[in-house]
Design goal:
There is one protein chain. Helix 1 runs parallel beside helix 3. Strands 1-10-2-3-4 form a five-stranded parallel β-sheet, with helices on both faces. It has 178 residues and is an alpha/beta fold.
Amino acid sequence: FSLWMDDELRGNATVTPHVIEPLEEAATLVLILSPAYMISQWCHLERSIFLAKVDQNAGCLFIVEHDQVERPAELSDLLGYKFWHPDDTGKPRILGIPKPKPEEFEYYQILDDLARQLADKLKELKAQAKTIPVATSIPMNSTSTEVTPSRINGTVATTLLPSATLFLAEVTADLEEY
């Protein structure tokens, strides 16, 4: 698999095509829900693009709750990975802040669950890619004179392998304080 984060973009790059293209090819998406995520138009666009291409119930969307936020309706049915908990007064406390400590067992347990389940999903997608036929035949128009290297007995071979890109994005600098 390959990992793509939007911090790989150069300062002079056109943002939209560089963000949309990896999303359209992504096999999984990890969302970090936070107040900043919830008010970011880019994050909403990225989520919409990904959800438009995959079945929401396919297990390819991983939700990390960085802070207590009200989830968008389309994400309400997913359990996610909650990296916060309410304290004795009911206020949300983010685990691992400012830096994870070795004694924060809950933080590391959730992180381990996320890592293992994400790795399992990527392995599952890889196994599915191996069981899907690498090529299928599409009948060509019998009057076609097009000559292609993949043309075999009046058919064209096409690749049907699913993508295996992992897309990870951060909020823009103006939203970091949220």
